[in-house]
Design goal:
Radius of gyration: 21 Å
Number of helices: 17
Largest sheet: 5 strands, mixed
Distance between the termini: 53 Å
Shape: globular
Helix content: 40-55%
């Protein structure tokens, strides 16, 4: 089978609406070779649901980025705290990191945080009034998760906005120099923060994390990388989760009306909202360590493998009428949080934040509408995540 001649994930139309591209690719073959970038390199893209689920758990697909690029020349300059996180490792390194990270987001821990989440949302929306125009991204979807994850890590309030800006820059697919620079700003900042916590043991969230890391066998650099991952992955995708969910509801008024009439349906609606427009379009880097076959396609050793939850979540063979937002659908099989040992440990917190934000919107502003036509909204230009730059609303 001949690969596409150009990288289909770099077409400007893909960033605005990736789903027609995903549909064409999946119909052609749910696992296929595609060009990546303009340097003659190729990767394998997985767009089918069963194939993606299988790939997420196949140990022959490694996430050890350093291993893949060890003998390959590169002009990139990512800070090690960003390039060597838990997301870029395999067991047993990954196991040690995850053992420290998972307790931060248990159901019980998140339940205890819910009153604080509500206070944050109330504070962020305190000045909102019916008839007012607001940018949901800038005024709620972005500051809510960055506030929560920084609170968990003990990042001073005065530094949070700048940290959010750096994290935003880290996903700029159009400017690798900007990405590299942002990685160093984040890495250097967190190195100083962790070093201070290690030098002056005491109480507080960061001191507690440092102790947990030491007890879990993580050294200083690994502690910094875990903190970086929690901040970057802990708010960027949740921001897009909230923005995408609100837009989906406004574009499906019958679904919005159901939640307005019964806000207690919101927790059960979250899986369908995640499935319908996943904040993670393409999962982070994997590569084949040996020859394998997925979905009837042979993948040679040594190739990047891109798993696309955004495509898998709209596989019509698994989710009938996939482009339709159906709040009665059993969407628990969506792959927006990944699957297997790398499934997002922060999923319970992300769900709690999105639920609280949606509840405020449907109960206090039940007649909210888009301030501009949906077709004119601007989307982030990155294939990894799917999210809006702004979401202007007229509160009602």
């Amino acid at each position: 089978m001949t690969a596409p001649r150009q990288d289909p994930l770099r077409d400007p139309r893909f960033f605005t609406d990736p789903y027609p591209t995903y549909d064409r690719l999946r119909e052609r073959c749910p696992v296929q070779r595609i060009p990546t970038g303009s340097g003659g390199h190729h990767a394998y893209l997985i767009t089918g649901h069963p194939e993606a689920r299988e790939a997420f758990t196949d140990p022959r697909l490694s996430k050890d980025t350093a291993r893949f690029f060890a003998d390959r020349p590169s002009n990139r300059d990512l800070h090690p705290a960003i390039s060597r996180t838990m997301l870029a490792s395999d067991p047993p390194t990954h196991t040690r990191h995850r053992r420290v990270a998972t307790p931060l987001f248990t159901t019980g821990r998140v339940r205890a945080l819910r009153p604080y989440i509500t206070r944050v949302v109330d504070n962020l929306t305190a000045a909102w009034r019916p008839g007012q125009e607001v940018d949901l991204v800038a005024e709620l979807a972005l500051p809510l998760p960055i506030t929560m994850i920084c609170e968990l890590l003990g990042v001073p309030e005065s530094d949070r906005a700048e940290l959010a800006t750096w994290s935003h820059d880290l996903f700029d697919a159009t400017d690798t120099a900007r990405v590299d620079a942002a990685s160093h700003r984040i890495g250097n900042y967190l190195t100083d923060l962790v070093d201070t916590a290690r030098a002056t043991p005491g109480e507080g969230p960061l001191a507690s994390l440092v102790r947990d890391c030491e007890e879990g066998g993580l050294d200083r650099d690994e502690t910094v990388s875990l903190a970086a991952l929690l901040i970057v992955a802990g708010h960027e995708t949740t921001t897009h989760f909230i923005g995408n969910a609100v837009l989906a509801l406004l574009r499906h008024p019958e679904a919005f009306d159901r939640l307005r009439r019964d806000p207690d349906l919101i927790p059960g609606a979250l899986d369908e909202l995640l499935r319908h427009d996943s904040p993670v379009s393409v999962a982070t880097f994997r590569h084949s360590t040996e020859d394998l076959s997925i979905g009837g396609t042979d993948i040679p050793a040594g190739f990047p493998v891109l798993i696309a939850p955004g495509a898998a979540n709209r596989d019509p063979a698994h989710f009938p009428r996939p482009d339709h937002l159906d709040l009665d659908r059993d969407a628990t099989g969506h792959l927006s949080f990944g699957h297997g040992i790398h499934r997002c440990p922060g999923a319970p917190l992300a769900r709690a934040e999105a639920e609280t934000a949606l509840r405020i919107l449907v109960t206090r502003f039940p007649d909210t509408r888009l301030a501009i036509p949906a077709a004119t909204l601007t989307w982030r230009r990155t294939r990894l995540t799917r999210g809006l730059v702004t979401l202007p609303l007229i509160l009602g």
